[in-house]
Design a protein that fits this description.
Layout: H1 12-45, H2 49-63, H3 72-105, H4 112-115, H5 173-192
Length: 193
Amino acid sequence: MPALLQVMGDTLAVRTAVWSEHVRAIELQRAALQTEIDRRCFELYGIDEADQRSITSGFSNAMCEDPEPADDDSEADSEIDDDIAYSFDAAVLAAQLVSWAVGVAFGRFDLRLATGARPLPKEPDPFHPLPRCSPGMLADDEGLPLTSAPAGYPMAFPENGILVDDPGHSCDLTTAVRVVFLDACWSSRREGS
């Protein structure tokens, strides 16, 4: 499922902000775990504090493009960069959502995962063989893609795999994507929240 459907919110902007906070929290947790791993490794190998600082500062300087100390102007620039990064992330998240909705309209992805009618699949064991289809695909009991909507599926999709760009046509792509967004995703998510 796209990131914006994995969080709750009444608008795309709210969902983007919630997703950004979710990602930041994961990054903080990852950084804390990395710090703990580093601490244990330094302790295990008996590396003293001076060498630890050299090692960690060496990695920091190698990863930085500009190791010059920051001044007040660069702080203002970083705030601008944060705004640019936010708008880029919002655009990427929105593009992922539209791409997924088009996939649902064609019958590629399972809409029931977004509405909660089907539970999210369990994480596979790393040593199990790969499934025939990705976990988010609309598939039959054998794991093969479906060519027609199953009984009780919340929307129809073309069995021949063709949608057209013709407003008013029964197979209009824009209308199908609107059905995914309005009728299926947003209304059922609001009722469930």
